[in-house]
Amino acid sequence: MEYANEITRRVMEERIKFQEKFPFPIDTAKLIQRLERPRGQIDVVLDTDAYNEIDDQFAISYLVKKSEKLHTKAIYAAPFFNGKSTGPRDGMEKSYEEIQKLLTLLEREDLKEQVFRGSEEYLSSETQPVDSPAARDLAQRAMNYTPEKPLYVVAIGAITNVASALLLEPRIRDRIVIVWLGGNSLEWENCMEFNLIQDVAAARVIFGCGAAVVQLPCMGVVSSFTVSGPELQKWFSGKSALCDYLCSYSCGEGERESRYKENWTRVIWDVTTIGWLADEEDIFMNDCLKPSPVPEYDGLYALPRDRHPIRYVSAIHRDALIADLIETLTK
Fold first, then answer.
1. Which of 257, 280, 309 is the last residue of a domain?
2. Which of 210, 237, 257 marks a domain boundary?
3. Beta bridge partners of 227
4. 178 shares a domain with 272
5. pLDDT truncated to tens, each residue of the chain (331 aa)?
6. What contacts 299, CB < 8 A, 6 or more positions away?
7. For residues 80 and 5, what is the distance between their CA atoms, to the nearest angstrom?
8. Residues 252 and 111 in one domain
């Protein structure tokens, strides 16, 4: 009983400290306005664990090539830890190098100065940021925007850098829109998706602080956005140095990781975050407003009905988005 009381006390203290970080009230009407899909040209920063899987490379390329609508202002290297890294710091460093490689293939040397190293570890609590060049840049950069003209923050990895920026400078809460591929669908058996489960504290920060969040859930929603080896060969092989890299790298990874050597498919779900921003005709996906979920440390969502709203993507129209991806990357 004494142990349980101590845990409860610590949780309450943490919650009070978190509320003190964000003392300003949430203007729900303005929040809903920021959650509308943007029309016209917008400024975007991208937070990516680029070396982790094959889909970050497609997302980075799609964003940079969509320059008539999406103005890439900075790219942040996010931490990750799995079989492709020795720890969060190593994952972040490898992602930093992968971003640089892609910018060379995209012939965008000008963007290399706007690539920033991110967090070397995950949040230890919901009130303590992990300082990094990426978090500092986002905290400073977002202050140049307004609730009426926000900065769009696309995140396709652990949300550590973005949560840290919010904790460093809470005033950016109402100046950004976070478009995050993280967690599973609310109907899934748990929320233990890779991006979310690496840093639950950071996920709780972005869902809890009142920021405008567009969630693209993985299993149960965006898991439908897949490609196969023959499709990649047909669409991208021989089109450009960039397309050859995307094709060969993806096919190599697909064959290496699948037990079905000739019939594999892979999810390239990170692309959908860029698709949400680029979808001028509302044909790539369905979304709706829902109360912000609470990712719990036990791997489940709490779903209180009285929370502020987020925008929740509920379905992907795969063929329409794939068609635009192919056209954008091969032109």
1. 257
2. 257
3. 266
4. yes
5. 554 566 566 667 777 888 888 988 999 999 999 999 999 999 999 999 999 988 999 999 999 999 999 999 999 999 999 999 999 999 999 999 999 999 999 999 999 999 999 999 999 999 999 999 999 999 999 999 999 999 999 999 999 999 999 999 999 999 999 999 999 999 999 999 999 999 999 999 999 999 999 999 999 999 999 999 999 999 999 999 999 999 999 998 888 877 776 789 999 999 999 999 999 999 999 999 999 999 999 999 999 999 999 999 999 999 999 999 999 999 8
6. 190, 191, 192, 197
7. 34
8. no
Q: Are 291 and 233 contained in the same domain? A: no
Query: Phi and psi at residue 54, in whole multiples of 5°?
Result: -90, -15
Q: What are phi and psi of 287, to 5 degrees?
A: -150, 170
Which structure tokens are listed for 244? Answer: 């050859």
CA dihedral of residues 184, 227, 279, 50 (deg, nearest 10)? 70
- The set of residues, in sequence order, having a beta carbon less than 8 Å from that of 138 and lying 6+ positions away, is 45, 74, 76, 153, 161, 162, 165, 172
Are residue 153 and residue 231 in the same domain, yes or no?
A: no
Residues in the chain: 331
Q: Which helix (H) or strand (E) holds 194?
A: helix 194-198
Domain range for 253: 226-257
Block residue for tokens 């103005």 = 71
Cα separation, 314 vs 124, in Å, equals: 31
DSSP states along 13-41? HHHHHHHHHS-SPP-HHHHHHHTSPP-S-
